Amino acid sequence: MEDTNNSNSVKNIIYMTKSGLDALTDELAERLELREKILNDIDEARRQGDLSENSQYTSAKENQSMNESRIAELNEIIRNAIVSESDNDNSDVVQFGSIVEVEVNGSVLKLEIVSEHESDLTQGKISDKSPIGSILLGAKLNSTVKLDVDGKIIEYKIKKIE
Predict the structure, then answer these.
(1) Which structural domain range is residue 75 located in?
(2) Are residues 55 and 19 in the same domain?
(3) pTM (two decimals)
(4) Is the distance from CB of 126 to CB of 113 less than 8 angstroms?
(5) Residue 146 domain-assigned?
(6) On the CB side of 101, how many CA atoms lie within 13 Å of its CA?
């Protein structure tokens, strides 16, 4: 008998740092708690009568839709996540999970190479798939990598790898 169920198909592996996976797991728990509040909001709005002109009901349903979409997305990411940290024994090469200190245009930046699902430039976390992240991966300590941005070459000197 042929298996037509796609549940056994190859999953989309998502490499993440442990802290990134923990943050998504925490967000999922918060959103599952929020689900109950939203259901209460919907029930409260229903009690107010005519739903066709009930902005509280419409708003609660929109919140529910956005929350449920994010819950589904988080479940999918977490189900496919594999924790991958940098190999501390090899701090001469930039790897996924490495914290890299680079000098660019006279300034020093500290960047952590993470997955696209946990990147946050305000915290110095850049995706391994971003232009900067992808050129840093595999680069060696004290080397310089170059990034072409609209015809302008930007050089990143790798000063430290953790």
Answers:
(1) 12-83
(2) yes
(3) 0.74
(4) yes
(5) yes
(6) 9
Report the alpha-carbon distance of residue 136 to residue 161 in Å, rounded: 11
For residues 126 and 33, is the Cβ–Cβ distance under 8 A? no
Burial 91-109 (b: 16+ CB within 10 A, else e): eebbbbbbbbebeeeeeee
Strand extents, DSSP E, 9-151:
14-16, 81-83, 99-104, 107-114, 125-127, 144-149
Q: Name the strand (E) or helix (H) holding 110.
A: strand 107-114
pLDDT at 5 exceeding the cut of 50: no
Residue type at 52 in one-letter notation = S
For residues 105 and 157, state if they share a domain: yes
Q: What is the pLDDT of residues 124-157, one digit of tens each?
A: 999 999 999 999 999 999 999 999 999 999 999 9
**Cα angle 39, 40, 41; round to 5:** 90
Quick count: other Cβ atoms within 10 Å of Cβ 24?
21
